[in-house]
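A quick word before the example. In earlier lectures we treated sequence and structure as two separate objects. From today on, think of them as two lines of the same record. Here is Endoribonuclease written that way.
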Amino acid sequence: MHLRQSDSHPNVIRYFCSEADRYFHYIALELCDLSLSDYIQRYAGCLDKATKLDLMKQATDGIAHLHHINIIHRDVKPKNILMTGLLTNPNNEHFSRIRVKISDFGLCKSVKIGHNSISKVSGAVGTEGWMAPELFDADASVTYAVDVFSLGCVFYYTLTEGKHPFGDSLSRMSNILSGNHFLNHLDEHAEYTSLTLISSMLRPEAARRPTASAIASHPLFWEPSKQLQFLMEVSDWIEKKEPRDPVMRRLEWRRNLVFTNWLDQLDEPLRLDLLKQRQYMNNVRDLLRAIRNKKHHYQANIFK
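And the structure line, produced from the sequence above:
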């Protein structure tokens, strides 16, 4: 029933029909090529960042659709994220665009209209190592956030090509219950956006995790052109604000956690080119200004 409700989305596995006899119930589903788990194992070391983000975004869209129609999946994991459309040449060198499909609806539950949670059955439901901590708390509510937690684990698994944010299989459950995740396989600077998003998805407090729809619109999944346009618009917006403005103070107060001097992080030719135009201060305002100015100067040079 849940599958019939949900299969109108391109990132949810398609249901065709069902039949039953005296002994068995048969369900005809869309044929997929392999699971995310199989895919990561098979192509580890060959996947670029854009491919991984595409897989993550499609999985998020599928979960967001389920939540939109009031369904909690409760068993999100790499083996339940299937893939179709995978085509390779004889040397396994060429990939078509893969379509991600959320599958296995055996543990799904519908949320009643007007409610945000479902009643808990006796015992924890799901797959050990991928279940949110509240599923082990007899007094906690089961909300859409349990899928978000599991999806955060899947994100880390995808980006690191097989690693788990809560460690090896022996210590995984105790780390989940104590809230100890380890994201050390992602570079804290190069993967800062991924790290902050995944950390928010793995929060022990279910109410503090983002929704699936919010994750789907996160800057991690923006095209580079959209990211650049956003930074330019922020630069224009803060240009006339005073340093003591509350917005500016919030923007600047954590800058030392990201960089000590942003100019020192630039390649020398770029730094020298920027400083030919004007002087820049070591603050976020001037970093955004430099990004905006460089974009404008680049466009101007193209049309000269």
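Notice the following. The chain has two domains: 34-221, 224-302. We will return to this example when we discuss secondary structure assignment.
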